[in-house]
Amino acid sequence: MPKLKTNRGAAKRFRKRAGGSFKRGQAFRSHILTKKSPKRKRQLRSPSDVAEADTKSVTRLLPYS
C-alpha cells in the first residue's frame, strides 16, 4: 500500500486538537480592516473549530494528523 500524501494547503490551515476536532483561523482578517470595529477584529484573532459537517473532509486531507 503506498503512502498517502498530505494536502499541504490544508496542513497550513488546520491543526488537530486533543479531542479530535480541528482548529482553524478566522476569515475576514486579511484586508479592508479600517471599516471593521476594534471589537470585531479582536474577536477574529481567536481560533475557531472546523464544523462537524466538514471534519470528515479535513481528516481525508490530513491523513496523518
Largest sheet: 3 strands, antiparallel
Q: What is the helical fraction, as a range of percent?
A: 25-40%
Radius of gyration, in Å, reads 15 Å
Derived from helix and strand composition plus strand pairing, the structural class reads: alpha+beta
Separation, N- and C-terminal Cα atoms: 19 Å
Oligomer status? single chain
Percent range for β-strand residues: 5-15%
- Number of alpha- plus pi-helical segments: 3
Strand order of the largest sheet: 1-2-3
Mean pLDDT: 96
Topology summary:
Blueprint: H1 8-13, E1 14-16, E2 22-24, H2 38-45, E3 48-49, H3 52-61
Antiparallel strand pairs: 1-2, 2-3
List keywords for this structure.
alpha+beta; 3-stranded antiparallel β-sheet; 37% helix; 3 strands; single chain; 65 residues
Summarize the structure.
The chain has helices at 8-13, 38-45, 52-61, and strands at 14-16, 22-24, 48-49. It has 65 residues and is an alpha+beta fold.
Structure description:
This protein has 65 residues and is α+β, with helices and mostly antiparallel strands. It contains three helices and three strands. Strands 1-2-3 form a three-stranded antiparallel β-sheet. It is elongated, with a radius of gyration of 15 Å. The model has no long low-confidence stretch (mean pLDDT 96).
